[in-house]
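Bug report

Summary: structure tokens for 23S rRNA (Uracil(1939)-C(5))-methyltransferase RlmD differ between web form and batch submission.
Environment: batch mode, default settings.
Steps: 1) Submit the sequence below via batch. 2) Compare with the web form result.

Sequence submitted:
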Amino acid sequence: MVGLGHDGEGVGRVNGFTLFVQGALPGEKVRVKVVKLKKQYGYAKLLDILEPSADRVDAPCPIYKQCGGCQLQHMSYEAQLRWKRQLVADNLERIGKLAVAGPGDAAREGILVHPTIGMDDPWRYRNKAQVPIGHGGPDMEGGLIAGFYAQGSHRIIDMEACLIQHEQNDDVVRAVKRVAGELGIRAYNEETGRGMLRHVVARYGFNTGEIMVVLITNGESIPHRDELVGLIREAVPGVTSICQNVNTQQTNVIFGDRTLVLWGRDVIYDTIGDIRFAISARSFYQVNPVQTEVLYRKALDFAALTGEEVVIDAYCGIGTISLFLAQRARNVYGVEIVGEAIDDARANAALNGIRNVQFETGAAEVVIPAWRQQGIAPDVIVVDPPRKGCDAALLETILEMRPERVVYVSCNPSTLARDLRMLEDGGYRTVEVQPVDMFPHTTHVECCSLLVRKD
Ligand code: SAH
């Protein structure tokens, strides 16, 4: 095996022909069975490992193979971090045509790509679980099950514990499954569109200990509703919010439009650094709070603020990065396309008494050119786009605005590389890239990059 693909699959060569083998690691010699052949490459099933890699470990999760939520549990954590750094460096070189230096050869010309910052304890890191509910057997035999869809299907497999999920969320899901089953509440059936309980969403504030339970239901009137709420309160000590979200559409989308509070508050609070956030049932909030703080501190560090700067935060979500920056800047302008997120961002600014930040709803590539027309001249622009990267029109506007620094937070190294190329061609130099492991045991990697104007 010669490498590891984007999805964590082993890449092997047989007489110059490429085979993708799920579960195989670079450096290994394996026996496989070819299952699918194309002209240039094929897919094969791993049968035996003849010479294992030194990076191979036993995946601790008993359902690792069926679930598909994690892709790298069979690789040591150290090796995962090294692979993530290499993936970023390879993308910068291949797609961005950028020279990469370091670690260890900082003397070389090129972008310094640092070693990935990992977690001290890379397990149980998620603060949110969203779990589909089903039946163990026909007519409530076997009660309710809650877990994940078997790979490539919509068959629900029951799960007692998820090793990347905070224990508290596992407890909530188990409790709801048990008490709703005892009350005879039926799970929703995707094919018939009947049954009540679709999903359970559990959220946990790592720094406050607050717990939210959201029941996503196919209709408003849950049978035995008050009993259910009472039993959840008993089974989940410390719960602060129990909500219901109604979704009657036959769709894969989890949440519907209407959220009701069944008991307690409509939000839970959590903190990142010194900043407090109110999180409602449907709000976007980073799922790994420990590494989020690491990432945001890096972004703040790269922005090198003195208190005098005007800063733009593009793709600001609920204003997390904006509020972080605002403590050290003169003014921060945040823009985000989802109106509800901007409502949350404004509420979060007020909650923290932060007044030097303004939020606007709209596409970054439309709103920021309008700000330019109004004479807003940023010293620093931070972008944190979705996987598809920045819109070209936004990159052009950045080049016209000529901020001293650009901080690019990215969840996709390939679009990052493409966008860095465009900024480099327009007069910026990429100084350093810091990969941060927000999603241990999966193939995802987040990066924070610093660009400075060349002149
Ligand atoms: N910076 C935030 C959110 C980043 S996720 C945080 O760290 O929490 C990317 C965000 O970009 C999402 O909230 C998404 O709704 C938003 N988005 C997607 N396309 C956009 C566009 N064209 N203009 C502005 N925001 C956009």
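Above is the batch result. After comparison, the two runs are identical; trailing whitespace caused the diff. The first strand starts at residue 3 and ends at 4. Residues 59 and 238 are 32 Å apart (CA to CA).
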